[in-house]
Each structure stands twice: as structure tokens, then as C-alpha cells.
Amino acid sequence: MEKLTKECVLQSAARLEQESQDAVMRDIPQFFEAEIVTRFAGAVPQKKELNPLVFNMERGICLAETVDFLRECPALRPYDLILANELDSGCARSGERDTAAEIARALGMQYVFGLEFVELKDAAHGFHGNAIFSRWPILWAEVLRLPEQYNWYYDRQKRIGGRNAVFAKLDVQGPSKIEVQCGQRQASIAISLLHIGQILVGFFSSGASSLTANFEAAVFNAFTSINTTKAMIRKFITAVRNFP
To answer: Which of 184, 188, 168, 179 is nearest to 227 (CA)?
Structure first.
């Protein structure tokens, strides 16, 4: 994903003094890209089951230790799909590395990355986002921007951007395809849903368990009666917008 120039970052940040995040983000195409990277892919699994893993990459600040843990921890294996959040790309705090690419290279996986934030307080003005790593071929991917409910420009972290969901369709070498969604909403609590060939993973922390439960229920209800990706996206965004 092409990095923004310093001039573009500063101009976009200045606009946030008067405009919404959504308005500024519309002029930054990287926020709407689903970057699929296949060059690190290893052998496709020779099995008929899918083993997903949900993992917070903690910005890749301790990248070597993270990779070692993913490789060596017996409790995690076998996995062929990682639904990951909090990945840096080009941030000074994580050595200006593309952490998703380095993880994919180390594990022999392909991946799709979705940009959530441009980090204004980071010296390198790097990117931060979510990713889906897969040993299965990624056939299609899309990034869905979630509705703005908080202006991160005025947060202590000072950011351009907002939460997203990354969608992907995988070829699992069978008669049907698996549709995967990885999203984040104030990361803390993870839920997962496997239903009619679909996997949904989210990271939620509303600060109140009842709100988290309500949001989980809204998303669950949106997903349990749909069969296609396009319908899934419409149902998902409706559930989010209707959440109190």
C-alpha cells in the first residue's frame, strides 16, 4: 500500500480542524483499498477443515517475539487462518516495518490488509490496520468503513481514520467457498461466529458489558439469515448503524 506524502498527511490533518473524518478520508484512496498480497504464500493445506486463529498483533512492536510465538506455541496449532488486528505499516514506533508483510513472509501465508488509521503523532506518519492471513487462496477482498462514532483526531493518539471491517472470500478446495470478516470496534473482547460457510470476528470494548452484548446480538442477527457477500455487507453495516 502506497504511503502518503508528508504534505498530504499535514494537509489532511489541517482539514480535520473543520471537517469530519469521513469527509477527509474520502480523499485518501488507501482507506478503501483491500490490499491482497500473495507473494509469500506457501503450500495450500491438504485437508477439508478450517482452523482460524484470532490474534492481536500489538502493532508489531515486538515482532520477532510475536512470530516466534505464532510458530512455536503448541496451543495455537494447527491454524491456517489468522484474523488479526493492530498491525503497523511504516510507523516509527515499530521500526517503520511493514509488519503484516513480515508476518506473512515468516509464516508462509498470503494476506489482505485494510487501513484503519494514519498515525499523526508517529514520527513517520505510518499506517495502522487489520488483516486476514490465510494459507488458503484469497479470491476476493474488500474493506468496509464503519460509521464514524468518534473523532480520532481529538484523541490522545491523534489519528486520521476510523474503524473498519476486512472481508475476504477463500478457496478452501471444496464445493463451497468460505467468507471471512475481520473487524474492530474499540478492541478488547473477541467473538466469533461460524454459520453457513461464514466466519465473523470482531474486537469490541464499549466500556459496558450490556452495550457489548447488544452490539454482538445486533451483528449476530444480521449474519444468521444471509447467504451472499453483498447481502452480508449490507446487513452488517445496517446492524452497526442501528447500534445505540
So the answer is: 179
Per-residue pLDDT band for 229 (boundaries 50, 70, 90) equals low
Show the cell assigned to 162: 476510523
- Cis peptide bond upstream of 137, omega within 30: no
User: What's the order of all strands across the beta sheet hosting 178-185?
Assistant: 138-145, 164-170, 178-185, 198-204, 189-195
In this prediction, residue 175 has a pLDDT band, given cuts at 50, 70 and 90, of: low
* Amino acid symbol at 177: K
One-character DSSP codes across 95-135:
TT-BHHHHHHHHHT-EEEEEEEEEESSSTT--EEEEEEEES
Distance CA 152, CA 170 (A): 32
C-alpha grid cell, residue 76: 495455537
User: What are the pLDDT digits (tens) for 2-21?
Assistant: 999 999 999 999 999 999 99
Q: Which residues contact 208 (CB under 8 A, 6 or more apart)?
A: none
Length of the chain: 244
Query: What average pLDDT score do residues 81-93 get?
Result: 93
| 72 phi/psi in degrees, rounded to 5 | -105, -25
